[in-house]
Amino acid sequence: MPCPHCDDTRWRQVRDDGVLRVERCECWRQDAARTLLRAARIPPRYERCDLDTFVSYENEKLLTALRRARRFIEAFPVVEKGLLLIGPPGIGKTHVAVAVLRQVVSEKRAHGLYYDTRSLLNTIRSTYDPVTRTSEVDVLRPVVEAELLVLDDLGAERSTDWVDETMNFIVNTRYNDRRPTIFTSNYEDIPDPEAFDSLLARVGFRMHSRLREMCEFLEYDGPDYRDFEYPPSSENLAHAWEAKKARPRPKLPAKTSSRARARLKTGNAELAWPGGRAGR
Q1: Topology of 26-266 in CATH?
Q2: Is the pLDDT of residue 11 over 80?
Q3: Which of 267, 264, 189 is CA-nearest to residue 221?
Q4: How many CB atoms lie within 10 A of CB 186?
Q5: How far apart are CA 260 and CA 203, in angstroms?
Q6: Residue in 249, 271, 31, 61 with CA at minimum distance from that of residue 169
Q7: For 136-140, which contacts have Cβ atoms below 8 Å and span 24 or more sequence positions?
Q8: What is the SS3 assignment for 55-66?
Q9: Which helix (H) or strand (E) holds 152?
């Protein structure tokens, strides 16, 4: 059925102070937003994430993170810093990050992109073609040039020279170009270099320093939304949160590699971007 306002021309006539002019029809704006959302690579599980549907409860740090997320959306693209959402699994970090991405893309017509960090690294490896000599830089161009990038689960990737170089290239390029990025991570931001399973240990001194300058760190805890067999209410979550606070806080399992531990002990040298084959 054709659009009643523009008859599918994508332009509609409006009269302003007696002058007839044309402007883009709302149907064109909606189509443009849908196209941008499809290009953002948001997984089906999260494609309906919205801050208005996020079930919150009395949790000061969570409510602060939600306020900062809304402020980011309102200010975009004039934002000084991105966001880094930190906390244990299941507390809604990805929901919040994707909700911000969706709203920025829909309302601001920004070119956004979502990637799980491990999925991104696997994509780079699998896309490399030695026959056509496609380089990592060519594959990474949409990632470093996106107006808004969401990198989910930072620090979950296994540390290797290639992984460190690739991740530092992404973060450093976006840092230099002042392109906002939203990260999520399960690893606490502990400044103690002896805390081998902290965010600092997982990403290294260099990247951690960049993240500190380019992102607002929003660390919070809470009950695991996935523990409920049905969508929880605010009251359900508040009760679960009170119960969780009364228990000893569990730590993430020690997964930091011996290489990452050594890097923290000796300091992290600056890394150059050598290019070359993925996984080398």
Answers
A1: Rossmann fold (3.40.50)
A2: no
A3: 189
A4: 19
A5: 8
A6: 271
A7: 136/166, 136/275, 136/276, 136/278, 137/275, 140/166, 140/169, 140/170
A8: CCCCCHHHHHHH
A9: strand 148-152
Amino acid at 22: V
The token pair that represents 56 in the structure block: 């919150």
Greatest Cα pair distance, the chain, in angstroms, is 74
Quick one: CA torsion of 225, 38, 158, 137, rounded to 10 degrees? -160
pLDDT tens per residue, range 256-268: 555 555 555 445 4
93 burial via Cβ count (<10 Å: 0-12, 13-18, 19+): buried
Q: What's the CA dihedral at 83, 87, 90, 92 to 10 degrees?
A: -30
Q: What angle do CA 148, 154, 160 make, to 5 degrees?
A: 120
Instruction: Count CA atoms within 13 Å of residue 131 on its CB side.
Output: 1
Omega of the bond leading into 77 within 30 degrees of 0 (cis): yes
Q: Rounded CA gap, 207 and 158, in Å?
A: 15
**Residues 44-55: b if buried by 16+ CB within 10 A, e if exposed:** eebeebebeeee
Q: Is residue 279 predicted with pLDDT exceeding 50?
A: no
Q: Does the pLDDT value for residue 136 go beyond 80?
A: no
Alpha-carbon distances, residue 141 vs 58, 128, 138, 148, 227 (angstroms): 41, 13, 5, 13, 38
Instruction: Find the mean pLDDT for residues 73-77.
Output: 97
How do strand 215-219 and strand 82-86 relate by DSSP bridges? Answer: parallel
More confident call, 38 vs 31: 38
CA pair distance 214, 59, nearest whole angstrom: 26
